[in-house]
Design brief:
Elements lengths: L1 H15 L4 E5 L5 H10 L3 E5 L3 H8 L10 H9 L3 E4 L10 E4 L14 H11 L7 E4 L7 H11 L10 E4 L18 E5 L2 H12 L5 E3 L3 H31 L4 H8 L23 H9 L7 H29 L7 E5 L14 H11 L3 E5 L25 H5 L3 E4 L8 H7 L3 E3 L3 H4 L7 E3 L1
Parallel strand pairs: 1-2, 1-4, 2-3, 4-5, 5-6, 7-8, 9-10, 9-11, 11-12, 12-13
Antiparallel strand pairs: 6-7
Length: 447
Protein backbone atom coordinates (compact mmCIF):
# COMPACT_ATOMS: atom_id res chain seq x y z
CA UNK A 1 0.00 0.00 0.00
CA UNK A 2 2.91 2.34 0.72
CA UNK A 3 4.28 1.71 -2.77
CA UNK A 4 0.89 2.38 -4.35
CA UNK A 5 0.48 5.61 -2.42
CA UNK A 6 3.99 6.70 -3.32
CA UNK A 7 3.49 5.89 -7.01
CA UNK A 8 0.14 7.63 -7.04
CA UNK A 9 1.35 10.79 -5.31
CA UNK A 10 4.45 11.01 -7.48
CA UNK A 11 2.46 10.73 -10.72
CA UNK A 12 -0.27 13.03 -9.46
CA UNK A 13 2.36 15.65 -8.68
CA UNK A 14 3.85 15.37 -12.16
CA UNK A 15 0.42 15.76 -13.73
CA UNK A 16 -0.51 18.79 -11.64
CA UNK A 17 2.80 20.48 -12.48
CA UNK A 18 2.50 19.53 -16.18
CA UNK A 19 5.74 17.61 -15.81
CA UNK A 20 4.22 14.28 -16.85
CA UNK A 21 5.22 13.12 -20.33
CA UNK A 22 2.33 11.74 -22.36
CA UNK A 23 2.51 9.10 -25.07
CA UNK A 24 -0.34 8.81 -27.57
CA UNK A 25 -0.44 5.58 -29.58
CA UNK A 26 -2.32 5.88 -32.86
CA UNK A 27 -2.16 9.26 -34.60
CA UNK A 28 -5.41 9.17 -36.53
CA UNK A 29 -8.68 11.07 -36.19
CA UNK A 30 -8.67 10.52 -32.40
CA UNK A 31 -5.01 10.38 -31.44
CA UNK A 32 -3.58 13.40 -33.25
CA UNK A 33 -6.20 15.93 -32.05
CA UNK A 34 -5.79 14.52 -28.53
CA UNK A 35 -2.00 14.86 -28.73
CA UNK A 36 -2.35 18.50 -29.82
CA UNK A 37 -4.82 19.21 -27.02
CA UNK A 38 -2.47 17.74 -24.42
CA UNK A 39 0.51 19.64 -25.85
CA UNK A 40 -1.40 22.96 -25.80
CA UNK A 41 -2.18 22.24 -22.14
CA UNK A 42 1.54 22.18 -21.34
CA UNK A 43 2.33 18.46 -21.43
CA UNK A 44 5.26 17.11 -23.42
CA UNK A 45 3.74 14.60 -25.84
CA UNK A 46 5.24 11.80 -27.92
CA UNK A 47 3.02 10.45 -30.69
CA UNK A 48 3.49 6.82 -31.72
CA UNK A 49 2.24 5.20 -34.92
CA UNK A 50 3.19 2.18 -37.01
CA UNK A 51 2.40 4.03 -40.26
CA UNK A 52 5.68 5.56 -41.54
CA UNK A 53 3.71 7.87 -43.84
CA UNK A 54 2.15 9.61 -40.86
CA UNK A 55 5.49 10.04 -39.14
CA UNK A 56 7.01 11.50 -42.33
CA UNK A 57 4.13 13.96 -42.64
CA UNK A 58 4.34 15.02 -39.00
CA UNK A 59 8.12 15.41 -39.17
CA UNK A 60 7.49 17.78 -42.08
CA UNK A 61 4.91 19.54 -39.87
CA UNK A 62 2.16 18.64 -42.32
CA UNK A 63 -1.14 17.59 -40.80
CA UNK A 64 -3.37 15.00 -42.49
CA UNK A 65 -6.26 15.57 -40.08
CA UNK A 66 -8.64 18.49 -40.70
CA UNK A 67 -9.09 19.12 -36.96
CA UNK A 68 -5.34 19.84 -36.64
CA UNK A 69 -3.99 22.70 -38.74
CA UNK A 70 -0.43 22.82 -40.02
CA UNK A 71 0.04 25.98 -37.97
CA UNK A 72 -1.10 24.29 -34.75
CA UNK A 73 1.20 21.33 -35.40
CA UNK A 74 4.16 23.59 -36.18
CA UNK A 75 3.54 25.60 -33.03
CA UNK A 76 3.65 22.59 -30.72
CA UNK A 77 6.69 21.09 -32.46
CA UNK A 78 8.54 24.41 -32.24
CA UNK A 79 7.68 24.69 -28.54
CA UNK A 80 9.18 21.26 -27.95
CA UNK A 81 5.89 19.85 -26.72
CA UNK A 82 5.25 17.36 -29.53
CA UNK A 83 7.22 14.89 -31.58
CA UNK A 84 6.29 11.68 -33.33
CA UNK A 85 7.98 8.33 -33.79
CA UNK A 86 7.44 4.72 -34.82
CA UNK A 87 9.94 3.52 -32.20
CA UNK A 88 7.81 2.07 -29.42
CA UNK A 89 10.76 1.55 -27.08
CA UNK A 90 10.21 5.20 -26.15
CA UNK A 91 7.04 4.26 -24.27
CA UNK A 92 9.09 3.64 -21.17
CA UNK A 93 9.86 7.36 -20.95
CA UNK A 94 6.16 8.27 -20.82
CA UNK A 95 4.30 8.77 -17.56
CA UNK A 96 0.85 8.54 -19.17
CA UNK A 97 0.24 6.28 -22.19
CA UNK A 98 -3.00 6.59 -24.17
CA UNK A 99 -4.16 3.93 -26.63
CA UNK A 100 -6.08 5.32 -29.63
CA UNK A 101 -5.99 2.42 -32.09
CA UNK A 102 -8.76 1.00 -34.32
CA UNK A 103 -11.27 -1.55 -33.05
CA UNK A 104 -12.89 -2.90 -36.23
CA UNK A 105 -15.18 -5.87 -36.71
CA UNK A 106 -14.32 -9.15 -38.40
CA UNK A 107 -16.33 -10.17 -41.48
CA UNK A 108 -18.57 -12.09 -39.07
CA UNK A 109 -19.22 -8.90 -37.04
CA UNK A 110 -17.16 -10.08 -34.08
CA UNK A 111 -14.83 -7.63 -32.28
CA UNK A 112 -11.32 -7.45 -33.69
CA UNK A 113 -9.14 -6.45 -30.74
CA UNK A 114 -5.88 -7.34 -32.46
CA UNK A 115 -4.72 -3.69 -32.53
CA UNK A 116 -5.55 -3.19 -28.86
CA UNK A 117 -3.83 -6.43 -27.88
CA UNK A 118 -0.70 -5.74 -29.95
CA UNK A 119 -0.46 -2.21 -28.52
CA UNK A 120 -0.90 -3.52 -24.98
CA UNK A 121 1.99 -5.93 -25.54
CA UNK A 122 4.15 -3.09 -26.85
CA UNK A 123 3.40 -1.13 -23.68
CA UNK A 124 4.04 -4.17 -21.49
CA UNK A 125 7.53 -4.51 -22.97
CA UNK A 126 8.62 -1.25 -21.30
CA UNK A 127 6.02 -0.93 -18.53
CA UNK A 128 7.40 0.46 -15.30
CA UNK A 129 6.18 1.48 -11.88
CA UNK A 130 4.28 4.74 -11.74
CA UNK A 131 2.77 4.81 -15.23
CA UNK A 132 -0.89 5.48 -16.11
CA UNK A 133 -2.17 3.51 -19.12
CA UNK A 134 -5.43 4.64 -20.73
CA UNK A 135 -7.55 2.95 -23.36
CA UNK A 136 -9.63 5.31 -25.54
CA UNK A 137 -10.55 2.89 -28.33
CA UNK A 138 -14.26 2.05 -28.41
CA UNK A 139 -14.96 -1.48 -27.27
CA UNK A 140 -17.30 -3.72 -25.27
CA UNK A 141 -17.63 -3.43 -21.47
CA UNK A 142 -14.88 -5.39 -19.78
CA UNK A 143 -12.12 -4.95 -22.38
CA UNK A 144 -9.89 -2.67 -20.28
CA UNK A 145 -10.03 -4.88 -17.19
CA UNK A 146 -10.29 -8.30 -18.83
CA UNK A 147 -8.10 -7.92 -21.94
CA UNK A 148 -5.68 -5.02 -21.47
CA UNK A 149 -4.92 -5.49 -17.76
CA UNK A 150 -3.85 -9.17 -17.99
CA UNK A 151 -1.48 -8.38 -20.85
CA UNK A 152 0.08 -5.51 -18.91
CA UNK A 153 0.40 -7.63 -15.77
CA UNK A 154 2.19 -10.50 -17.51
CA UNK A 155 5.57 -9.02 -16.52
CA UNK A 156 4.74 -9.06 -12.82
CA UNK A 157 3.64 -5.47 -12.23
CA UNK A 158 0.12 -5.09 -10.84
CA UNK A 159 -2.58 -2.59 -11.74
CA UNK A 160 -3.50 -0.33 -8.82
CA UNK A 161 -0.24 -0.82 -6.98
CA UNK A 162 2.61 -0.67 -9.50
CA UNK A 163 0.88 1.02 -12.45
CA UNK A 164 -2.56 2.51 -13.02
CA UNK A 165 -5.14 1.69 -15.66
CA UNK A 166 -8.10 3.67 -16.95
CA UNK A 167 -10.62 4.06 -19.75
CA UNK A 168 -11.86 7.27 -21.38
CA UNK A 169 -13.98 6.91 -24.52
CA UNK A 170 -13.12 9.11 -27.47
CA UNK A 171 -15.93 11.42 -28.56
CA UNK A 172 -14.49 12.96 -31.70
CA UNK A 173 -16.87 14.22 -34.38
CA UNK A 174 -14.91 14.95 -37.58
CA UNK A 175 -16.09 18.12 -39.28
CA UNK A 176 -17.93 19.48 -36.23
CA UNK A 177 -16.81 23.09 -35.84
CA UNK A 178 -18.81 23.69 -32.65
CA UNK A 179 -16.91 21.20 -30.49
CA UNK A 180 -13.35 19.92 -30.36
CA UNK A 181 -11.32 17.61 -28.12
CA UNK A 182 -10.88 20.28 -25.43
CA UNK A 183 -14.55 21.32 -25.26
CA UNK A 184 -16.30 17.92 -25.44
CA UNK A 185 -16.98 16.63 -21.88
CA UNK A 186 -14.63 13.72 -21.12
CA UNK A 187 -15.87 10.51 -19.50
CA UNK A 188 -13.17 9.02 -17.26
CA UNK A 189 -12.85 5.89 -15.14
CA UNK A 190 -10.10 3.87 -13.55
CA UNK A 191 -9.19 0.49 -12.13
CA UNK A 192 -9.48 1.56 -8.50
CA UNK A 193 -9.90 4.92 -6.80
CA UNK A 194 -6.34 6.11 -7.29
CA UNK A 195 -6.46 5.36 -11.02
CA UNK A 196 -9.77 7.21 -11.29
CA UNK A 197 -8.34 10.28 -9.52
CA UNK A 198 -5.29 10.26 -11.79
CA UNK A 199 -7.61 10.11 -14.81
CA UNK A 200 -9.58 13.08 -13.49
CA UNK A 201 -6.42 15.10 -12.85
CA UNK A 202 -4.81 14.28 -16.20
CA UNK A 203 -7.79 14.90 -18.47
CA UNK A 204 -8.99 17.75 -16.27
CA UNK A 205 -5.74 19.56 -17.08
CA UNK A 206 -6.52 19.45 -20.80
CA UNK A 207 -10.29 19.49 -21.34
CA UNK A 208 -13.04 21.81 -20.17
CA UNK A 209 -15.17 19.25 -18.35
CA UNK A 210 -14.48 15.81 -16.88
CA UNK A 211 -17.27 13.36 -16.02
CA UNK A 212 -16.06 10.53 -13.74
CA UNK A 213 -17.95 7.22 -13.58
CA UNK A 214 -17.58 4.30 -11.21
CA UNK A 215 -15.73 1.74 -13.34
CA UNK A 216 -13.96 1.15 -16.62
CA UNK A 217 -16.82 -1.09 -17.76
CA UNK A 218 -19.31 1.71 -17.11
CA UNK A 219 -17.24 4.14 -19.16
CA UNK A 220 -17.02 1.58 -21.97
CA UNK A 221 -20.80 1.18 -21.82
CA UNK A 222 -21.32 4.95 -22.01
CA UNK A 223 -19.68 5.16 -25.45
CA UNK A 224 -21.60 2.18 -26.78
CA UNK A 225 -24.87 3.63 -25.50
CA UNK A 226 -24.24 6.93 -27.27
CA UNK A 227 -23.64 5.26 -30.62
CA UNK A 228 -26.37 2.65 -30.27
CA UNK A 229 -28.83 5.47 -29.61
CA UNK A 230 -27.90 7.07 -32.92
CA UNK A 231 -27.83 3.79 -34.86
CA UNK A 232 -31.29 2.73 -33.69
CA UNK A 233 -32.88 6.12 -34.35
CA UNK A 234 -31.30 6.42 -37.79
CA UNK A 235 -32.58 2.93 -38.59
CA UNK A 236 -36.05 4.04 -37.52
CA UNK A 237 -36.16 7.00 -39.90
CA UNK A 238 -34.61 4.88 -42.67
CA UNK A 239 -37.43 2.37 -42.24
CA UNK A 240 -40.00 5.15 -42.16
CA UNK A 241 -38.45 6.58 -45.33
CA UNK A 242 -39.11 3.39 -47.26
CA UNK A 243 -42.68 3.11 -45.93
CA UNK A 244 -43.58 6.75 -46.48
CA UNK A 245 -42.06 6.69 -49.97
CA UNK A 246 -44.39 3.82 -50.87
CA UNK A 247 -47.27 5.94 -49.55
CA UNK A 248 -46.19 9.02 -51.51
CA UNK A 249 -45.16 10.90 -48.37
CA UNK A 250 -41.89 12.87 -48.13
CA UNK A 251 -40.01 11.75 -44.98
CA UNK A 252 -38.01 14.98 -45.00
CA UNK A 253 -41.16 17.10 -44.85
CA UNK A 254 -42.47 14.90 -42.04
CA UNK A 255 -39.29 15.37 -39.98
CA UNK A 256 -39.22 19.14 -40.51
CA UNK A 257 -42.77 19.40 -39.23
CA UNK A 258 -42.27 16.95 -36.36
CA UNK A 259 -39.24 18.77 -34.99
CA UNK A 260 -41.31 21.90 -34.36
CA UNK A 261 -42.64 20.10 -31.27
CA UNK A 262 -40.65 21.62 -28.38
CA UNK A 263 -40.61 18.43 -26.32
CA UNK A 264 -40.68 14.66 -26.72
CA UNK A 265 -39.07 14.56 -30.17
CA UNK A 266 -35.50 14.66 -31.48
CA UNK A 267 -34.87 14.79 -35.24
CA UNK A 268 -32.79 12.11 -36.93
CA UNK A 269 -32.34 11.98 -40.68
CA UNK A 270 -32.32 9.14 -43.21
CA UNK A 271 -29.50 8.50 -45.63
CA UNK A 272 -27.90 5.98 -47.99
CA UNK A 273 -26.48 3.94 -45.12
CA UNK A 274 -24.25 4.44 -42.10
CA UNK A 275 -20.60 5.44 -42.24
CA UNK A 276 -17.72 6.35 -39.99
CA UNK A 277 -15.82 4.17 -37.56
CA UNK A 278 -18.35 4.37 -34.72
CA UNK A 279 -22.04 4.03 -35.54
CA UNK A 280 -21.89 1.15 -38.06
CA UNK A 281 -19.50 -0.85 -35.87
CA UNK A 282 -19.78 -0.09 -32.15
CA UNK A 283 -23.30 -1.49 -31.56
CA UNK A 284 -22.11 -4.94 -32.61
CA UNK A 285 -19.51 -4.92 -29.85
CA UNK A 286 -22.36 -5.02 -27.35
CA UNK A 287 -24.28 -7.56 -29.44
CA UNK A 288 -21.23 -9.83 -29.33
CA UNK A 289 -20.77 -9.37 -25.59
CA UNK A 290 -24.47 -10.04 -24.91
CA UNK A 291 -24.03 -13.66 -26.06
CA UNK A 292 -21.99 -14.28 -22.91
CA UNK A 293 -25.11 -13.48 -20.88
CA UNK A 294 -27.54 -15.28 -23.22
CA UNK A 295 -29.49 -12.05 -23.68
CA UNK A 296 -30.67 -10.98 -27.14
CA UNK A 297 -30.08 -7.48 -28.50
CA UNK A 298 -33.00 -7.36 -30.92
CA UNK A 299 -33.17 -3.59 -31.39
CA UNK A 300 -29.46 -3.34 -32.12
CA UNK A 301 -29.40 -6.20 -34.59
CA UNK A 302 -32.55 -5.05 -36.37
CA UNK A 303 -31.15 -1.52 -36.65
CA UNK A 304 -28.00 -2.95 -38.17
CA UNK A 305 -30.01 -4.92 -40.72
CA UNK A 306 -32.06 -1.89 -41.74
CA UNK A 307 -29.09 0.46 -42.03
CA UNK A 308 -27.01 -2.13 -43.91
CA UNK A 309 -29.85 -2.55 -46.42
CA UNK A 310 -30.02 1.15 -47.33
CA UNK A 311 -27.35 1.16 -50.09
CA UNK A 312 -29.23 -1.59 -51.95
CA UNK A 313 -32.53 0.27 -51.46
CA UNK A 314 -30.99 3.44 -52.91
CA UNK A 315 -29.61 1.61 -55.94
CA UNK A 316 -33.05 0.10 -56.42
CA UNK A 317 -34.52 3.62 -56.47
CA UNK A 318 -31.83 4.63 -58.97
CA UNK A 319 -32.64 1.69 -61.26
CA UNK A 320 -36.36 2.45 -61.12
CA UNK A 321 -35.84 6.13 -61.89
CA UNK A 322 -33.54 5.34 -64.83
CA UNK A 323 -36.15 2.99 -66.27
CA UNK A 324 -39.21 5.18 -65.70
CA UNK A 325 -37.73 8.59 -66.53
CA UNK A 326 -35.05 7.81 -69.10
CA UNK A 327 -36.18 4.43 -70.37
CA UNK A 328 -32.75 3.01 -69.67
CA UNK A 329 -31.61 -0.01 -67.69
CA UNK A 330 -29.08 0.40 -64.91
CA UNK A 331 -26.94 -2.23 -66.61
CA UNK A 332 -26.45 0.16 -69.55
CA UNK A 333 -26.06 3.34 -67.48
CA UNK A 334 -23.22 5.52 -66.30
CA UNK A 335 -23.65 6.88 -62.77
CA UNK A 336 -21.65 9.54 -60.95
CA UNK A 337 -21.76 9.26 -57.15
CA UNK A 338 -21.43 12.66 -55.48
CA UNK A 339 -19.51 12.27 -52.23
CA UNK A 340 -17.24 9.39 -51.21
CA UNK A 341 -16.75 10.47 -47.58
CA UNK A 342 -19.27 9.16 -45.07
CA UNK A 343 -20.28 12.67 -43.94
CA UNK A 344 -20.16 16.18 -45.33
CA UNK A 345 -17.07 18.37 -45.40
CA UNK A 346 -14.57 15.74 -44.21
CA UNK A 347 -12.20 13.40 -46.09
CA UNK A 348 -13.07 10.38 -43.91
CA UNK A 349 -14.28 7.38 -45.94
CA UNK A 350 -14.30 4.81 -43.13
CA UNK A 351 -17.30 2.48 -43.61
CA UNK A 352 -18.72 4.97 -46.12
CA UNK A 353 -21.93 3.75 -47.80
CA UNK A 354 -20.69 5.38 -51.02
CA UNK A 355 -18.19 2.56 -51.44
CA UNK A 356 -20.98 0.03 -51.21
CA UNK A 357 -23.18 2.05 -53.58
CA UNK A 358 -20.47 1.94 -56.25
CA UNK A 359 -20.04 -1.81 -55.78
CA UNK A 360 -23.77 -2.54 -56.03
CA UNK A 361 -24.18 -0.39 -59.15
CA UNK A 362 -21.38 -2.31 -60.83
CA UNK A 363 -22.66 -5.66 -59.57
CA UNK A 364 -25.82 -4.84 -61.50
CA UNK A 365 -23.88 -4.10 -64.66
CA UNK A 366 -23.72 -0.33 -64.48
CA UNK A 367 -20.63 1.87 -64.46
CA UNK A 368 -19.96 4.12 -61.47
CA UNK A 369 -17.50 6.93 -60.82
CA UNK A 370 -17.35 9.41 -57.96
CA UNK A 371 -16.68 13.05 -57.26
CA UNK A 372 -15.52 14.23 -53.87
CA UNK A 373 -13.82 17.59 -53.20
CA UNK A 374 -12.15 16.11 -50.11
CA UNK A 375 -11.10 12.68 -51.44
CA UNK A 376 -8.90 12.66 -54.55
CA UNK A 377 -8.38 8.90 -54.68
CA UNK A 378 -9.82 5.78 -53.07
CA UNK A 379 -7.19 4.54 -50.60
CA UNK A 380 -6.59 0.96 -49.59
CA UNK A 381 -9.46 -0.44 -47.50
CA UNK A 382 -10.00 -3.85 -45.98
CA UNK A 383 -13.48 -4.38 -47.45
CA UNK A 384 -13.27 -2.57 -50.81
CA UNK A 385 -9.85 -3.33 -52.26
CA UNK A 386 -11.22 -3.50 -55.83
CA UNK A 387 -11.94 0.24 -55.67
CA UNK A 388 -8.42 1.21 -54.62
CA UNK A 389 -6.86 3.86 -56.84
CA UNK A 390 -10.02 5.19 -58.42
CA UNK A 391 -9.85 8.95 -58.70
CA UNK A 392 -12.40 11.70 -58.19
CA UNK A 393 -13.99 13.00 -61.40
CA UNK A 394 -13.99 16.74 -61.99
CA UNK A 395 -17.42 18.39 -62.08
CA UNK A 396 -17.71 20.17 -65.40
CA UNK A 397 -20.79 20.58 -67.58
CA UNK A 398 -19.36 18.24 -70.22
CA UNK A 399 -18.45 15.61 -67.63
CA UNK A 400 -21.78 15.70 -65.79
CA UNK A 401 -23.74 15.44 -69.03
CA UNK A 402 -21.78 12.30 -69.95
CA UNK A 403 -23.48 10.43 -67.07
CA UNK A 404 -27.05 9.15 -67.17
CA UNK A 405 -27.59 9.96 -63.50
CA UNK A 406 -26.03 11.55 -60.44
CA UNK A 407 -26.42 9.89 -57.05
CA UNK A 408 -25.86 12.33 -54.19
CA UNK A 409 -24.57 10.27 -51.28
CA UNK A 410 -22.78 13.01 -49.32
CA UNK A 411 -23.92 16.63 -49.29
CA UNK A 412 -20.55 18.42 -49.20
CA UNK A 413 -20.77 22.21 -49.20
CA UNK A 414 -18.06 22.48 -51.88
CA UNK A 415 -20.40 21.36 -54.66
CA UNK A 416 -22.38 23.60 -57.01
CA UNK A 417 -25.76 21.88 -56.72
CA UNK A 418 -27.51 24.51 -58.83
CA UNK A 419 -25.18 23.67 -61.72
CA UNK A 420 -25.75 19.95 -61.22
CA UNK A 421 -29.51 20.53 -61.34
CA UNK A 422 -29.09 22.26 -64.71
CA UNK A 423 -26.65 19.79 -66.24
CA UNK A 424 -27.82 16.34 -65.14
CA UNK A 425 -30.78 14.54 -66.74
CA UNK A 426 -31.48 12.58 -63.53
CA UNK A 427 -30.49 13.11 -59.89
CA UNK A 428 -31.04 10.72 -57.01
CA UNK A 429 -30.82 12.75 -53.79
CA UNK A 430 -30.32 10.77 -50.56
CA UNK A 431 -29.60 13.86 -48.44
CA UNK A 432 -32.45 16.23 -49.41
CA UNK A 433 -29.82 18.82 -50.35
CA UNK A 434 -31.63 20.07 -53.46
CA UNK A 435 -34.89 20.75 -51.59
CA UNK A 436 -32.94 22.45 -48.79
CA UNK A 437 -31.39 24.77 -51.36
CA UNK A 438 -34.73 25.46 -52.99
CA UNK A 439 -33.83 23.50 -56.14
CA UNK A 440 -36.56 21.37 -57.68
CA UNK A 441 -37.52 19.63 -60.88
CA UNK A 442 -39.02 16.43 -62.17
CA UNK A 443 -35.55 15.01 -62.74
CA UNK A 444 -34.65 15.25 -59.02
CA UNK A 445 -35.74 12.15 -57.11
CA UNK A 446 -35.41 11.73 -53.35
CA UNK A 447 -34.29 8.36 -52.04
Amino acid sequence: MILATSSYLDLLGKIEKREARAGVIGLGYVGLPLAMTLARSGFAVIGFDIDPGKIIALDAQRSYIEAVSNEALTSEVAAGRFRSTSDFTGLGACDVIIICVPTPLTKHRDPDLSYVEATSRAIAATLRTGQLVVLESTTYPGTTDDVVRPILEEGGLKSGSDFFLGFSPEREDPGNRDFDTATIPKIVAGDGEEARKLMMAFYGAAVKSVVPVSSNATAEAVKLTENIFRAVNIALVNELKTLYAAMGIDIWEVIEAAKTKPFGYMPFYPGPGLGGHCIPIDPFYLTWKSREYELPTRFIELAGEINSAMPRYVVGSLAEALDMRLGKALSRSRVLVIGLAYKKNVPDIRESPSLRLIEIIEERGGHADFHDPFVAEVPSTREHMALKGRRSVELTEETVKSYDALLVATDHDRVDYAALARWSPLIIDTRNIFARLGLSGGHIVKS
